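Repro:
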Amino acid sequence: MAVTDRVHGATRRRRVVDVAFRVGALTALALVIAPALWLVVGVVARAAPHWRWSVLTTLSAGTSGGLENAVAGTLVLMTGVALLAGVTGVLTGVYLAELASPRRSGRLGGAWARGAIDVLAGFPSIVLGYVGYVALCVALHWGFSLLAALLILSLMVVPYIAKATESALRQVPTSYREGAEALGMSQGYTLRRVVVRSALPGIVTGLLIALSVAGGETAPLLYTAGATNNLPTWSLLHQPVAYLTYYVWTDYNQPGLAAHVVSNDAALILVVMVLAMLVVARLIVSRSQRHTESAR
């Protein structure tokens, strides 16, 4: 009888712990989702009553007008960051995970590279922007320009991509590499066709985070990209670039209603861009999941 009571007591304790764990997990999930929903609903509620589609096809005129130049400039900046920081960050993550990993003897530089990435990730964005202004815009006489903005934004988000890539590659089972080696595949072919493809969901997630961070930055762009009411050009130097966060930050602090409308519209467009990137990333991840072990 005593043994039966102890068994029932242990079962009840396990059930209580299980219920408490589920409640805690759901509470944590709610704490993450609730602020995101609050922000999205707040932006939509402020922008929707005054929304007009002509804002996408009209140039800005100070604290009024449209946001065509800012939308185009933001897309150009994010595309440039995706190419420049994406390639650099992914290759850095591949080096750290595959070429400088503890599995390979005689490889040096991994610890130094990780330390440099951690230090770079800890720099405030406004400090990077000021360094970019002094070193690129002033010392090299580039002025406010697209190239200066791209370099600083890429430098800021490369650690996110490198860390996400390294983490995703380390989660690929070692049996994948051993099987490819047993079949006579070269290291480069194994990386491209087996390892990187299996780690693609994590890599895409890191790239998405990096693009979201780059698209939402203001301080480094104030120092490097400047501001303009014109559309972006093919000139990389001596030509300021417009971006949405400038109008969100600047026009919201203006007293006029027209400026607040422009600020709300810019915030709504940014939210839509981030959601669009999220959808595209999920499509890529779902398509690549068939190559992972968990999807079999």
